[in-house]
Amino acid sequence: MLEKSGPSEAKEYNSHMKRMRIYVDTSVIGGCFDPEFRLWSNGLIDDFHARRFHLVISDVTAAEIERAPAPVRELHAGLIGFAEILPVTEEALSLLEKYEEHGVLDARFRNDMLHIALATVAQVDVLVSWNFQHIVRLDKIQQFNGINLELGYKPLAIYSPREVTTYERKG
């Protein structure tokens, strides 16, 4: 494991491996302002700024952020300049329909399923979320990935920011 390091160590680390493409949902961006989650969310955002990871967000994230407090919207606006932004595609909507048909989540949580579908179709390395009720939950991860595999997609790795950020990482 890599300890929290300075810029020169981060460059060396990144020069030896491809940067992971990490999809973050809205909870990670909002988590930067939540006392319970701020250390880990901000650590991950710092990792993106330091180019340790490649940030992936979506049009769904942007739509959800519109209803967020001003500081969350401002942070999101600052990330757009260097993020890969996924549009909602027919392929992702088709995968979403499969999740709905299998009853993975109630229809009220359609956007949560759409985040998963977008990340799956885009073949990101990891989806990161603080949503422990619908996304970062073993039984849900197994259901989503069962459908993904059945349809020929790769399984999607899903973690919380605490598990992904290099913030305070010790050997």
Describe this structure in words.
Helix 6 crosses helix 7 (110-121). This protein has 171 residues and is α/β, with parallel strands linked by helices. It has a five-stranded parallel beta sheet with strand order 3-2-1-4-5. It has a single domain, classed as 5'-nuclease (Rossmann fold, 3-Layer(aba) Sandwich). The model is unreliable at 1-14 (pLDDT under 50). The chain has helices at 7-15, 26-31, 38-49, 59-65, 70-80, 90-101, 110-121, 138-150, 161-164, and strands at 21-24, 54-58, 84-86, 126-128, 157-159.
Question: Summarize this, please?
Answer:
The chain is an alpha/beta fold and about 170 residues long. Helices cover about 50% and strands about 10% of the residues.
